[in-house]
Description:
The chain is 81% helix and 0% strand.
Amino acid sequence: MTPTPGPESRSALMPQLAVACLGAGVVTSLAVAQGQSPMTALTITLFSALAAVGVGQVL
């Protein structure tokens, strides 16, 4: 049985997600400036941010 995350870990999730999105957004901005599709870039940003938060929760 896996334990449910407590309220303190849920409240820490939003700042982690915000920082991860900002970091991934910088790289995404560069990619769009180089000619990549904005929708592809946003998809990659969202996936990267969620993966970073997921790994951060496990570690």
